[in-house]
Write a structure and sequence with these properties.
It is built from 15 helices and eleven strands. The chain has about 350 residues and is an alpha/beta fold. The chain has three domains: about 130 residues, NAD(P)-binding Rossmann-like Domain (Rossmann fold), CATH 3.40.50.720; about 120 residues, no CATH class; about 70 residues, Rna Polymerase Sigma Factor, Chain: A (Orthogonal Bundle). Strands 3-2-1-4-5-6 form a six-stranded parallel β-sheet, sandwiched between helices. It has a five-stranded mixed β-sheet with strand order 10-9-7-8-11, with helices on one face.
Length: about 350
């Protein structure tokens, strides 16, 4: 029986996690809930599930993680504000089921230095797939990681064909139901850039051995290529309950969380290279990830501001990544070992710099 705290319980990942936990009372018991601002829904969840410990706000969520006894913390908070709870979970010795990729990307080695081997289990479907595929061989036998991307709503379009894209079009993801920021990040491919950095940190694979492959069907969630020429993939219909359940009970599988593929019906899976001219965010993320330090924090913060401005009608779709690029170019990092203070100050600077560019 695993005692679980769910952070971001009112969001998409959190709600699905509660469904998995509720359907498997012999495996999981819910001991804590936290949400960003939706107090009414949080209270309703707590009453329905009989959970005593709950928190509103990131600071309160961090305190919850440190004071409530649990085996697993699922961090489903959106954005870099999830860094504090991520560090709290690691320092408290909990298994961290990580859906909040931004905290790992922003925190980088600051986060990884606090993690024991196997303490972080990814919830992202791509990184869950990689973790599963890596069980097929030794780390030294890995040739490269192949991160699959659906291509989002604008797959196949040239850059100039996205100039007048609307927020409604950007949110019309063909395969996944996600929140506003993550869905927009999928449309710009910023999300895939963040996932490249995440894969580098989680699996200690160099950036030049992490490749993005567009796979519109979102059936193969990612692949690992080994030195003998074998490629191991994880395939399933799009369903976040599968990676959520696996992260909650890693490495054990929870029965009936997803529907398997129908092998009695003919189907076609397509794979194609990423058009980095139309979608430059992945190349920019590689550059930022290789630079390390506070650069990923600057990248992420600038993106959050630009995404908000796009949905408020203040900038166009292409301006999102262009703004990130300019902010990253203007950043002058502070010397010395990266600290939480430095990361916070870098984020504040990036948000201000992004908004200055947006306003102009």
């Amino acid at each position: 029986m695993r005692r679980v705290i769910v952070l971001g319980s009112t969001g998409s990942i959190g709600v699905q996690a509660l469904e998995v936990i509720g359907a498997n009372p012999e495996r999981f018991t819910l001991v804590g809930l936290a949400a960003g601002s939706n107090a009414a829904l949080l209270d309703a969840q707590a009453r329905e599930l009989g959970v005593e410990h709950r928190a509103i706000g990131v600071v309160e969520a961090e305190q919850l993680v440190r004071t409530v006894d649990a085996d697993v913390v699922l961090n489903g908070i959106t954005g870099s504000v999830g860094l504090g709870p991520t560090i709290a979970a690691l320092e408290s010795g909990r298994t961290l089921a990580l859906a909040n990729k931004e905290s790992l990307i922003v925190g980088g080695e600051l986060v990884m230095s606090r993690a024991k081997p196997g303490q972080i289990v990814p919830v992202d479907s791509e990184h869950s797939a990689i973790a599963q595929a890596l069980l097929a061989g030794d780390d030294r036998d890995v040739r490269r990681i192949l991160l699959t991307a659906s291509g989002g709503p604008f797959r196949g379009r040239r850059r100039n064909e996205m100039a007048n894209a609307t927020p409604e079009e950007a949110l019309a993801h063909p395969n996944w139901v996600m929140g506003l920021v993550v869905t927009t990040n999928s449309a710009t491919m910023v999300n895939k850039g963040l996932e490249v950095i995440e894969a580098h940190l989680l699996f200690d694979v160099p950036f030049d051995r992490i490749e993005v492959v567009v796979h519109p069907q979102s059936i193969v969630h990612s692949m690992v290529e080994f030195v003998d020429g074998s490629t191991i993939s994880q395939a399933s219909p799009p369903n976040m309950r599968l990676p959520i359940s696996l992260a909650l009970d890693w490495p054990h599988r929870v029965p009936e969380v997803g529907v398997p593929l129908d092998w009695s019906t003919a189907s076609t899976w397509k794979f194609e290279p990423l058009d980095e001219t139309a979608f430059p965010a992945v190349a920019l993320a590689r550059r930022v990830g290789a630079a390390g330090g506070c650069f990923p924090a600057v990248f992420n913060a600038a993106n959050e501001e630009a995404v908000a401005a796009f949905h408020e009608g203040r900038i166009g779709f292409l301006d999102i990544v262009d703004t990130i690029d300019r902010v990253v170019d203007e950043f002058a990092p502070e010397s010395g070992e990266v600290s939480i203070r430095m990361l916070s100050e870098a984020e504040d600077w990036a948000r201000a710099a992004a908004n200055k560019l947006i306003s102009s």
